[in-house]
Amino acid sequence: MASYLITGASRGIGLELVKQLLELPASQVSKVFAVARNVEIDAIKELVQKHSDRVIPISASVNNTASLEKAVESVKGKLDGQGLDVLVNNAGINGLTTGGIKGMEVDQLSQILDVNVIGVQRVTAAFVPLLEQGTQKKVFNISSALGSFALASYIADMPTDAYIISKTALNMLTLRWAQQYADAGFTIAAISPGWLRTDMGSKDADLSVEQGVSEVKRLILESGKEKNGKFLNIKAAKTDDMMWEYDGKDIAW
Questions:
Q1: Is 153 exposed, middle or buried (0-12, 13-18, 19+ CB in 10 A)?
Q2: pLDDT < 50: residue spans in the chain
Q3: CA distance between the termini of the chain
Q4: Are the C-beta atoms of 18 and 32 separated by less than 8 Å?
Q5: Residue burial 130-151, b: 16+ Cβ < 10 Å; e: rest
Q6: Which CATH class is domain 2-233?
Q7: CB of 66 closer than 8 Å to CB of 39
Q8: What is residue 197's predicted lDDT score, i.e. its pLDDT?
Q9: What pLDDT score was predicted for residue 249?
Q10: Between the chain's N and C termini, which has fewer beta carbons within 10 Å?
Q11: pLDDT at residue 21, rounded to an integer
C-alpha cells in the first residue's frame, strides 16, 4: 500500500490524477491527499463521498508557507505513524507574454516563478521529513517539454516566456534534489505530461487529460531509482495533427 500527495488537485491534471489513483485497489493506493487552495469544489466532494476512507482533501496554497505547515501536520495525523510514499508537485500557473521577452512584466515573471518553482521548493522541503519515513520515497514534478534547452529552438516564438523560464528552472530544481537525495534512496524526477486539453492547455491541445494523466500515472507507478534525476516523457501514438512527439523516451534537459 502506498500513500500519495498531489498538489493542484482541484482541476486539470491534478484532479484527474487523484481520480485515476483512486481507481486502483486500496492494496496498491491506500490514501490520496488532494491538496488545493479550494477543496470545497463539487468534484472533490464527489470523490470524498465515493472514497471517504481513501481520499483526504487538504486546504493549502503552494505559495503560502504557513498553510503548508498546517498541511504537513494534517497529513502527518492522517498517516497514523506511517510515512508519505509519493509526492506529486503538480500545482502550476501559466500566462501569455505580450511584446516578446522585452515586454514580459516582472510582476508576471515573479508570480509564475513563485508558484511553479518556489512553490515546488516549499512543498518538497515541507514534506520531505514524511517522505523519508515512507517506503517508496518518490517525488515527481510536473514540468513541460517547453522547459527543455534542447527543444528551445522549436518554441522560440511561443508567447509564454515566463512559463517557459519557470519550467526550465523547475527542471534544475528537480535535478538538484535528485542528486542530493539519491543516497537516501529517493526517486526524484520531472515529468512532461504532454499538451493536454485542460483549462491551461486549451481545447486545441494534442491529447485528452484522461490519456495524458493515464501515462503520468504509469510513469509514477513504474519508475524506480533508475529514473532518479531524469526528465520523463509520456508515450502516445503519433497523429498528423499533434504538435509534439510522445515517444516515452527521456527528454534532454
A1: exposed
A2: none
A3: 33
A4: yes
A5: bbeebebbbbbbbbbbbbbeee
A6: alpha beta
A7: no
A8: 87
A9: 95
A10: N
A11: 98
Task: List, for residues 139-161, the tens digit of each pLDDT value.
Answer: 999 999 999 999 999 899 999 99
* Reduced 3-state DSSP string for the chain: CEEEEEECCCCHHHHHHHHHHHCCCCCCEEEEEEEECCCCCHHHHHHHHHCCCCEEEEECCCCCHHHHHHHHHHHHHHCCCCCCCEEEECCCCCCCCCCCHHHCCHHHHHHHHHHHHHHHHHHHHHHHHHHHCCCCCEEEEECCHHHCHHHHHHHCCCCCHHHHHHHHHHHHHHHHHHHHHCCCCCEEEEEECCCECCCCCCCCCCECHHHHHHHHHHHHHHCCHHHCCCEEECECCCCCCCCCCCECCCCCC
Grid cell in block for residue 162: 515566463
**How many Å apart are CA 100 and CA 160, to the nearest integer?**
9
Other Cβ atoms within 10 Å of 108 Cβ, number: 18
Q: Which three cell numbers stand for residue 217?
A: 500515472
Look up residue 249 and give its amino acid.
Answer: K
- Grid coordinates representing 143 are 514540468
Half-sphere CA count of 241, side-chain side, radius 13 A: 4
**Cα→Cα distances 27→22, 24, 30, 49, 50, Å:** 11, 8, 6, 20, 17
Nearest Cα to Cα of residue 232 among 19, 88, 121: 88
The dihedrals phi and psi of 3, each to the nearest 5 degrees, come to -105, 145
Q: What pLDDT does 195 receive?
A: 81
- Phi, then psi, of 142 in degrees rounded to 5: -75, 110
Q: At 172, list the grid cell.
A: 534544475
| Amino acid, res. 244 | W
